[in-house]
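Summary of Year 1 activities. Much of the first year was spent building the evaluation harness for sequence design. The harness presents a backbone, in tokenized form, and records the residue chosen at every position. We chose the following record to illustrate the format because it has been used consistently in internal testing since the harness was completed.
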């Protein structure tokens, strides 16, 4: 079922964001880069995988808009993008409101006294 929300994200953007966040390493990279920017090399030191594998994770995050990369000298620095995180949060908030309203309607139906 497709829910039509008033989100500012397209379906493709939502798909890319949640696909990117479905991986624990990518979620960790986002957390680290929201605290402060880091080079891809520095990020790679934190994981038991190759530099190329970390680069691929960063590329997925960048494709989803969750991080940005910029060059400083010879380094490629990665920075988390809190604006996209906030947009995704607003979408989740919309789903929560939808869910809560349905639960409230169900609760009202179940507590309605048919003998009154």
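For this record, the design step produced the sequence shown next.
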């Amino acid at each position: 079922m497709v829910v039509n929300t008033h989100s500012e994200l397209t379906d493709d953007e939502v798909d890319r964001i949640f696909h990117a966040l479905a991986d624990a390493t990518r979620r960790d990279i986002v957390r680290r880069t929201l605290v402060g920017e880091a080079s891809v090399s520095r990020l790679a030191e934190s994981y038991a995988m190759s530099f190329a594998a970390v680069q691929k994770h960063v590329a997925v995050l960048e494709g989803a808009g969750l991080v940005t990369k910029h060059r400083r000298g010879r380094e490629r620095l990665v920075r988390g993008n809190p604006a996209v995180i906030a947009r995704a949060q607003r979408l989740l908030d919309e789903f929560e409101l939808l869910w809560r309203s349905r639960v409230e309607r169900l609760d009202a139906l179940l507590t309605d006294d048919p003998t009154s």
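The longest strand covers residues 67-72. Quantitative recovery figures across the full test set are reported in Table 2.
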